[in-house]
Amino acid sequence: MISVGVRQLKNGLTRYLRLVEKGESLLVTNRNRTVAVLKKPDRRSAHTVEEKVGALVAEGRLVGATDCGRMKPFKPVTVKGTPVSKMISEDRR
Known about the structure:
Blueprint: E1 2-5, H1 6-11, H2 13-21, E2 26-30, E3 33-38, H3 49-59, H4 84-92
Parallel strand pairs: 1-2
Antiparallel strand pairs: 2-3
């Protein structure tokens, strides 16, 4: 892994990107502190939302929707007693 400073990376960005494209990893430093690692993305990394969702479904970490129909109509819940807004107003006093 090659270590390169931020200024050095900025001045020779094209050269360093070519190295990364060939498979080399870069350790980017700022005042001798590591701030980033640049490396070529692996084949499994997804680029779009659809690809990411597809990868999660394939791994079994996400379950896809089975029914794409309309949702059931919303029915508001009625609660007996003091309205919540009034309870909050009283609590703030």
